[in-house]
Amino acid sequence: MTYAPGNVRDAIIGYLDACGGEASTKEIHLAISRRLSGVASSSVRSYLNLNTPNLFERTGRGKYRLKLEAYEEASVSRFPSVEVGKATLYQCDCFDWLSQREPQSVQAVVTDPPYGLLEYSGKEQQKLRDGRGGVWRVPPSFDGHVRSPLPRFTVLTENDRLQLQAFFCRLGYLLGRVLVPGANVLVASNPLVSHVVASAIAESGLEPRGVVIRTVMTMRGGDRPKNAHLEFSDVSVMPRSMWEPWLVFRKPLDGRVQDNLRKWKTGGFRRLSAERPFGDVIKSNPTPASERRLAPHPSLKPQAFLRQVIRASLPLGEGVVLDPFAGSGSSLAAANAVGYESIGLESDAQYFELAQASIEKLASIPVQQVNPV
Ligand SMILES: C[S@@+](CC[C@H](N)C(=O)[O-])C[C@H]1O[C@@H](n2cnc3c(N)ncnc32)[C@H](O)[C@@H]1O
């Protein structure tokens, strides 16, 4: 497909502007082909070449960003922030922050990103806060327990898949820039989307290093066919989900593991004890009501689990752990509880306030000690 002169260039500028940082040619092509369907990747490459260095700046092999004075002068200190114990929480879009943070200055990432990519938009959050549903649904209560709202999604359309792919590929590139070699990245996922997330992050250059399984009874799956549950009473559309995958990645090492550990303090996982290495199956429970009362966020993760993964993420217990989707600040609370420095990023003003109030409270609750399977 051939487009009028300027269309491709404008689409590239629009995407790089929204991205706020660098992006690869492949990522730019993927993003703009949603707007200009059928655009050839060779046109994207030639527009980038033709307009570099006037409009674009080459930041690495096959990577570009918009050439704007503003980006050169920007720094993360312009974002509102608060400190709670050893944690620093910023109110910002994580993509902006990541593109402005000093390179090679983070030793681990532990995060639980949005998956519908819609459910944490201003519009959907307003509907959730007004109790008007939207993409959020409240699962039926039983046993006298009221369940937390869950985002609805069961099937990924091709467009959803492309959006997820572009989002996580871009996240991976930006994380790769701020991470030191050997840094661990643990990303909460779910069995429906984990394959897309894993391939997108791997495409960004972070190495896939397996999965940590959090065993937990979730409210996903197990339902009979909608509007035909009596007719097909012995059928579940999907298996009832009883685990949550936490995808593990690593920024490629600088030399051998031992060299990397000496130079960067990263390149492995902290053991539970001399006898017990960190394992990849962690027994867990849904977040207790006592924690949900302290930090009412719809995707709150439990302290008992978070403290285990955060502790393990820094092999020598030195460095800073980043959560780019901090929500209620539960991961920062877990980092405070195990004595680590941490940074959290949260774009939503109400969750930013919630996190400020919750971190100390969540960090001080006693939790049952490590419970290996
Ligand atoms: C799945 S929740 C994480 C909840 C967290 N696990 C907890 O225990 O509180 C994802 C969070 O990321 C935030 N978020 C979404 N997009 C963001 C972005 N681009 N930058 C920073 N935060 C973002 C949402 O507002 C939401 O609070």
Structure description:
The chain contains 13 helices and 14 strands. With 373 residues, the protein is α/β, with parallel strands linked by helices. It has 2 domains: 67 residues, Winged helix-like DNA-binding domain superfamily/Winged helix DNA-binding domain (Arc Repressor Mutant, subunit A); 251 residues, Vaccinia Virus protein VP39 (Rossmann fold), CATH 3.40.50.150. Helix 2 packs across helix 3. The chain is globular, with a radius of gyration of 21 Å.
Give a summary of the structure in a few sentences:
This protein is α/β, with parallel strands linked by helices and 373 residues long.
Topology:
Layout: H1 7-19, E1 23-24, H2 25-32, H3 41-50, E2 56-60, E3 63-66, H4 69-73, E4 81-84, E5 87-91, H5 94-100, E6 106-111, H6 122-129, E7 136-137, E8 150-151, H7 158-178, E9 179-188, H8 194-203, E10 207-215, E11 243-250, H9 257-264, E12 281-283, H10 289-294, H11 303-313, E13 320-323, H12 330-338, E14 341-346, H13 349-364
Parallel strand pairs: 5-14, 6-9, 6-13, 10-12, 13-14
Antiparallel strand pairs: 1-3, 2-3, 4-5, 7-8, 9-11, 10-11
Bound molecules: S-adenosylmethionine.
S-adenosylmethionine binds at residues 93-95, 112, 114, 120, 297, 299-301, 325, 327-328, 330, 345-348, 351.
